[in-house]
Structure formats: structure tokens, C-alpha cells
Amino acid sequence: MEDEKRLADALTYILKKNNYGVDTAYDGETGQAMAETGVYDVIILDRMLPYKEGVEIVKALRTQGISTPVLLLTAKDSVENRIEGLDAGADDYLIKPFSTGELLARVRALGRRKLAQLGGEKIEAYGLTLDPLRCELTKGEEVIKLTLKESLLLELLMRNVGQVITKEQILDRVWGLDSDVEISNVETYVHYLRKKLTFSEVSIGTIRGVGYCLKGI
Hints:
The chain is an alpha+beta fold. The chain has helices at about 1-15, 30-35, 55-65, 80-90, 100-120, 150-160, 165-175, 185-195; strands at about 45, 70-75, 90-95, 125, 130, 135-140, 140-145, 165, 200-205, 210-215. The strands form 3 sheets. The protein has a 4-stranded antiparallel sheet with strand order 4-5-6-7, covered by helices on one side. α6 crosses α7 (about 165-175). The protein starts with a helix and ends with a strand.
């Protein structure tokens, strides 16, 4: 299992060096729990992981309706193994060892696919409709204009109704890991957004010491 950890650390370093925000899990159960939050643009998943195997994780995610693109890494290069992974719901397959250039190219391609899925898509929750491209929130005939950061924050909460989103996840998704913005900015924008949500029956709940979740009143 030490080889898998070294690979994970190497991939984390490469991706961060190329300006990607990265969260890393070293076993299948932790990785699946992270993936189930739905906050990621692309998932890179090793087929051989402790506690839960990669193909099982992909199947579980797809069963739950999580459509995040998955790049499956494997040392098994038989056609049958590739078919099994793709049939389970993986979007792409990369056989070890691979070049850094090919890895980054495949991540870029999957990232574009994610953007294409989201392009023009409106999000609905608790009677509210968010148009991320226009940064507009509507309820019936009433339209509220949001700033870009407010829209990104609300989008994250609306895509994960019923789940708690940590302040660190919000900071990563709304501002980016390389930003100098402090965690207090998250609290400030949650305050701004709460004021704009007063026209609806929706609120942002605080889970003390953890983060926030969207709630219907």
C-alpha cells in the first residue's frame, strides 16, 4: 500500500504545481465519502485502494446520481479490465505507468466535459431557481441579483442540499486554494447571502464547528 500512497502524493504535487485545487484520500472508504459531497470537478481514482476497490466506488457514485467525471488509474491493462471500469461508470482510463503530460491532458478533457454539463444549467431547491451564468436567483416572479461570489457559494449549497459543506470546501471552491483570502471571508459572504435569502423560505444553517447547509424553513 506504500506504493499507492507515494503515487497519490506525487499526483497531488503535480496537480497543485499546475494550479489545480486538490484533496487527497489514501483509502477507498475516505475517498468515496469525499466524492459523495459532489463538490469536485474531476475525480482521479486508483483502482487498487485499501478498504474499497476503485470500481466499487465508481458504481456506488453513479448509483447515487453523482455524475462527476472519473479518471480511473490501473496497472491492469487487459481489455476486459478496461471494459469493466468503463461499464461501472468511469469516464476515462489511464494505465500505469503514465506520463505527466498525458495525465494533465486527460484531466483537462474531463474538466471541459464537466463545464459542458453545467453550461446553461439552472439549479432548483426549495422553490428557488439559480441561474449560475446570470448570477440570478428567482422565486416565482421575483428576481434577486447576486454577486459572482454569492452565486458560487449558493450554487455549492444548492447542489448539496441536505449535506454540510465545510468552510474549507467553500474557500476552495469559491476563492481557490491559492487565494490569500481568509476563512473569515466565508462567514462574511454567508452573512450577505442570508440577507438576500430573506425574500424566500430558505435559510443557511450553521453546523457549529463544521460548516453550513441549505435548509427549507
